[in-house]
Amino acid sequence: MHAYRSHTCADLTAANVGETVRLSGWVNRVRDHGGILFIDLRDHYGITQVLCDPDSAAFADVEKLRSEWCIRIDGEVKARAPELVNPKLPTGEVEVFVRCVEVLGASKELPLMVFGDQEYPEETRLKYRYLDLRREAMQDNMKLRSDVVASMRRRMWDKGFREYQTPIITASSPEGARDFLVPSRLHPGKFYALPQAPQQFKQLIMVSGFDKYFQIAPCFRDEDPRADRSPTDFYQLDLEMSFVEQQDVFDTIQPVIGGIFEEFGKGRKVDQTWEQISYRDAALWYGTDKPDLRNPIKMQVVSDHFRDSGFAIFAKLLEQDGTEIRAIPAPKGGSRKFCDRMNAFAQKEGLPGMGYIFWRDQGEGLEAAGPLAKNIGPERTEAIRQQLGLGLGDAAFFLGGKPSAFETVAGKARTEIGNELGLTDKERFAFAWIVDFPIYDRDAETGKIDFEHNPFSMPQGGMDALNGDPLDVLGYQYDLACNGYELVSGAIRNHRPEIMFKAFEIAGYGQDEVRKRFGGMVNAFQYGAPPHGGCAAGIDRIVMLLADASNIREVIMFPMNQRAEDLMMGAPSEPMNEQLRELRLRVLPPES
């Protein structure tokens, strides 16, 4: 017999009754039923109930066992009585009578319990991550992640892609976030960087004549943490293709991502039609470039109904350039109590509040109610109702000013209204391509033109587009949104050196600066670069959605905490003096 096990803790069935078996695993819990000791023995695959009575020679040893001790048992498989069968377990028809037990690894008193659903502070869970990972939910999340990655690889190979690895140590390249720098011992005073993404390398792979590339790529960014973003590193399905247009990329990645959600979505509906929504329309309708389309609410501009109206606040706002009034329809939200609650929500988000109108029947037909309705009169409120397609028992909320000042809160309010009124379909994955991103933006304080989005995207219209107003230039750049999260980002690349130089010149970067920052890629583009494009899908975020997790750390094996610290391994740590001397570095004390 094998030294540790003849079967896993998920293998045994009624067909094994009468066999002598060997199992190894962890003590999930111990129960004493009138002198008979029952142990749920757990391994990676499942749970088997084992038991020992006082007549067994192993009873004294079994009495000493505690939760999370790692043990090996030999015993005989017996059938459970029909009334004791556990249909929830694959091994629920049998139990194993212990004849001999060996402790493979005893456990100290546990800082967190593995069995059960107790909640523990995140700091405790991350410090003792190896215990946290033994819990059933975490085991399921990590298996799900592994299965998703394996499925991605199969699907990409089936589409004719090959996987190539790009460097982990490279040159620093400003791509929107801070680099992690790595000092060079052989070149004192110089630094490598961990790649924020394989962006330049995958484009160079296309220049090298490889038609279809993909990689399960680690990416490193020194970022402030959020619930849906790791502060240090993350993984993405990275891909690039030559001789493609934007729609070709969509047609390639959609069945891969859609197939993953169908395979692992636990039966939830996966939208088959993925809308293409312009960046500007997404901001207008949803207040975000990653809209949750499970929520049917679509915001609209209603400025004309308030222009020169009796509601002085909005009327005066509209006299200023660049201002507008937007409405958030709220079907079935027509009660003063709900409207007041949403007004308080806006105030909590930092706005003075939200105006509202709701429609009710006081016995004389449909009537518009609320402070706004009184100020602008029945004709204007009726025109608003008809524009928004609302009726009895419905409401609408209003925000005004420059969109940049209220758009984010409007998007949050839309989400809150959809959830509060039960309008958001929670059993669905809804996808949309966000397209036509502006390449440039103007700084409100300095008036300087700079890149709003990816500087490597091909401008729509090529060189001709760059000769007009920079704020009108759109790029062949795109994101894929799902249920309020950005899952994919990509672009058709700017592979023409003269267009690239012009694009950077508009943002204030001369040719020398471009060559200094991106010399490898710029040089390569002078030797017959093909048109190419691609995208990257965030694996952590995809698994987070599939696992119904609200925090990305629930689907990462060993994540950092909110302060970018590894509490388990003690990182970041202070270097030894010998290391600093070898690298010719000196550490300055932190500023007080």
What topology does this entry show?
Elements lengths: L19 E14 L2 E7 L4 E6 L6 H5 L6 E10 L14 E12 L16 H6 L1 H4 L3 H23 L3 E2 L16 E4 L7 E4 L4 H9 L4 E9 L12 E10 L3 H19 L4 E2 L4 E4 H8 L13 E2 L1 H4 L5 H6 L6 E7 L5 H13 L6 E7 L4 E4 L1 H18 L6 E7 L1 H18 L7 E2 L1 E5 L1 E2 L1 E3 L6 E3 L10 H4 L8 E2 L1 E6 L2 E8 L4 H10 L4 H14 L7 E7 H8 L30 H7 L9
Parallel strand pairs: 3-5, 6-9, 11-18, 12-19
Antiparallel strand pairs: 1-2, 1-4, 2-3, 4-5, 7-8, 9-10, 10-26, 13-14, 14-17, 15-16, 15-17, 19-24, 20-23, 21-22, 24-25, 25-26
Structural class of the secondary elements? alpha+beta
Strand order of the largest sheet: 6-9-10-26-25-24-19-12
Strand content: 25-35%
Number of strands: 26
Approximately how much helix is present in the residues? 25-40%
The low-confidence parts are: none
- Give the helix tally: 17
What composes the largest sheet?
8 strands, mixed
Shape: globular
Radius of gyration in whole Å, from Cα? 30 Å
Distance between the termini: 65 Å
Mean pLDDT: 94
Structure overview:
The chain is built from 17 helices and 26 strands. The protein has 592 residues and is of the alpha+beta class. Strand 21 and strand 22 form a beta hairpin. The mean pLDDT is 94. Helix 4 runs antiparallel to helix 6, helix 4 packs across helix 16 and helix 5 crosses helix 15. It has an 8-stranded mixed sheet, sandwiched between helices. It has a 5-stranded mixed beta barrel with strand order 1-2-3-5-4.
